[in-house]
Amino acid sequence: MGNIIGIQISCDAIFTLCLNCTVHKAAYVRQLKDNLRALQSELEKLIEARNDVMRRVEVAEQRRMKRTDQVQGWLSRVQAAETEVGQLTRDSPQEIDKLCLGGYCSRNYKSSYRFGKQVAETLLVVRTLMGERAFDEVVVEIVEESIVADERPTEPLVVGLQSILEQVWSCL
């Protein structure tokens, strides 16, 4: 008698999925040097944009205006990204030394993969921050409540020279 139920499994689909996953993860290691250079370049552009925004804010704050929360949040995120890029830059020589075979492989693949992924994610964050820098307004006017103060006239008071002052007045 023949088989009643037949099962077919396509090895091509499974192989393709595994290969795509491996190639995608290997790209973090393979593109590590390029991503580090791109990250440095994008960070420099971001710092220039931050300095331009800060200059606009400082000029407006001298005119008794206040920066918007949107600008303050963006500046905080830029500062955090700058700190993270600084840390990645400090760690990069160690990770680059682990690369072999022209940067296509690593002596510690797991460490290089994690580092490469972190560099790629940070690069994406920096590029996103660059896109967010176009603000409609960086400051708003401060509405000050008027403070009412009573002005009280005061009499001139000379301490210690009262007798000399009286003599001068009597002479005049």
Automatic annotation (TrEMBL):
Keywords: Coiled coil. It comes from the Eukaryota. This is Rx N-terminal domain-containing protein. Residues 29-63 form a coiled coil.
